[in-house]
Batch of 2 targets.
Target 1
Amino acid sequence: MEAVAFGYKCQECGEGTVLEREIPEYHTKIRGYPFVVTNARLGVCYRCGAEHFAVQETDRWEQLFEAAYEKLYLQPEEIRLLRNRLGLSMEQFAFLVGCTRQSLYSWERADRSRPQSRMADLLMKLVRESHDKGKVDVLRFLVQEAAQFGIQLKLGGEGQASMREAISR
Ligand SMILES: [Zn+2]
């Protein structure tokens, strides 16, 4: 790998020098999602501790992120299988989930360069869950999905929900 060039004066404090440092497990956020980069290389000011990032290195992080999270999305063959199990043509399935036929076509391509949007992915997963199990607890399902991305969501109003249940019994 190419060396990341640091060694310049820190703009934060104006006094220290930014030196390259390799961090075995660097905790960061990429596109809003928590992510741990293995052997991250960044510049750290020896005086104030400010962190500096080289574009080529953060590009690498983005690629690592995409590779790691791509597995969490429905894969092309899973989408095609779901559609076939529902007995729908591409046009019909696209209408069901509110996308264009072209989008669906690109998501089902084995050599696709990027997966469907997160929103489309969640909707298709819900469709699959509903087809497999009938009834789906949508909120619970979405919270579990978020957890896979390292996002812990605590929903309010659960007390109210259980109270409604108690009253209807
Ligand atoms: Zn500094």
Target 2
Amino acid sequence: MNFPPARILLGPGPSMTHPRVLQALSGPTIGHLDPCLLDLYAREQNLLRRVFQTENEWTFALSGTGTSGMEAALANLIEAGDAVLVAVHGYFGARLAEIAARLGAQVDRIERPLGEIFEVDEIEAALRRKPYKLLALVHAETSTGAEQLHVAEIAEAAHRYGALLLLDTVTSLGGIPVKVDEWQVDAAYSASQKNLSAPAGLAPITFGPRARAAVARRRTPVPSFYLDLNLYADYWSGAHAYHHTASSGLHYALVEALTILLEEGLESAFARSRANAERLWAGLEQLGAPPFIPPAYRLPPLTTACVPAGVDPHAVRARLLNEYDIEIASGFGALKDKVWRIGLMGYSSRPENVQKLLEALKKLLAD
Ligand SMILES: Cc1ncc(COP(=O)(O)O)c(C=O)c1O
């Protein structure tokens, strides 16, 4: 097999894979009901609980990418006709609203322009307008590089008005604090390939007591068989009933990646992520490509950098890949030609990667 070149992955995901994780990936294939894999699920659940900072029993890694986590959370919580509020501050918030609508929810959106986040009172004002079953929100908006602050206050407001809070933590988990229990987040999902630095293909998810009670009260079955969390619970930790043919290799890899993260310690990983991001931000300022998001809610794992006037962002991105084997991404939607998106996630977040990128950008911008 002729492999593509090994890239320095500094885009919005996937991030680079630690050599220990790559080695774990090549472990022996075993059956999806092999007692060794079932034991591994129990370990994986404990590791995921530590990373999500929760005691939630329903904590799994779903077979599928981050979008399967998003779809599973919504499909298990929503029944057709339910009122759902989605606070949209970028592309992935809009995706939440789209999936909720496809599930038959009555979806109301409140929106912030790209690059901004919500204040608690705006969300509270929307919650006051009518009773919602669910409020859905993206914690770290990968399309803009903004961190939605005040999650605990937003959860408190949601509960006061009788709504559950669903939080997308795809770009936050493992890179910045995500405190599911302390913040009283009812349901959250993520993806294996961002700050956790495992291969894409698994979606960590956690459901707390209120979310589980909502699932138990459903009048209709979960519309997706594949993403039905009752069936997951039965397969992972209940009767171990066959549900689907899970990939042992992906689970070895995620367990190893979570082990590496917890060996480093969550607080140290967050500090490393911030220190490398600050190196990047300082370098970008010097190159005349300053970060687009204000420091107060700028995300260390994902930076949007303003493209200097007169520079073709797509040509620079292509040359970074072709000549330097460095992957970064373009902007989304209205930001397409205005910013680059630079990820420093998990194992990609290292000083030498920041330096290589800044040196390459300097040469390309001088051209
Ligand atoms: C915030 C956010 N949510 C959801 C997703 C979807 O994840 P995936 O591409 O793994 O399906 C992404 C992917 O980039 C994301 O950044």
